[in-house]
Structures are given as C-alpha cells and as structure tokens.
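Task 17 of the worksheet. Students: predict the tertiary structure of the chain below and write it out as structure tokens. Keep your answer in the requested format; marks are given for formatting as well as content.
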Amino acid sequence: MGATAGAVWGRAEQQDFRSRVRGTLLGAAVGDALGAPVDGFTLERIREAHGAEGLVDLAFGHGRRGSVTHLTQLTLFSLDGLIRAQVRRDTGAWHPPTDLHRAYRRWAATQSDWGPDERRK
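Model answer:
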C-alpha cells in the first residue's frame, strides 16, 4: 500500500472525528485555564488558598483569570505539527518527528515575543 492510499473513512465519519478532536481540544483548553491557578498544588495547599471546598470559581493564575498556559499552547502546536506531517505525507515527504520538532521551534519562538500588558489594574 502506498503512502497516498485513499480515505479510510467516509465523509460522515471524518466529520464526526473532527468534531471529537475539536471537542477534546476545547475541553483540554478550558480545563487547563480553570486549573492553572492551582497547577501543581496539593489538595491541602488548594484548601489553604481557596477554602475547604477548594477552587469553585475563576481564580487568578499567571496574572489573570482564565489564562492560556504553555500546556494548551504546546497541545495546539503539536496538533499543527501533526497536520503538517499528514500534508507532507500526501506529497511523499513524510517524517512526523521533523514536523513536530519544527512546530515546537515555532512555539518556542512565540515565548520571547511579549505583547502589551492586558491585565487590568
């Protein structure tokens, strides 16, 4: 079987898969933003900081509420690298580790380019 074999799924299955991927990414991003203020905390430390019930509302993390963390960024850049690898597969130049490496280098380049401070005073 060649690298450019036909589609395995029909149109409906492809749309369902894409919908599931989008839902997974959205859920991961929302969960990451909500959990960012207590990332790495023990349950005891969470209760000390937020009361006996723990974190029940948006809290400040990384300077603001609902911040996008490096984990969400890396997840999205990983997906970008995998999509690029798939496109390159269709052209016969398939090497996913290279495409992921390039995606992570693109992510790293975004980490030193700071924009304006959008936090409210």
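Marker's comment: The chain is about 60% helix and 5% strand. Residues 11-35 form the longest helix (25 residues).
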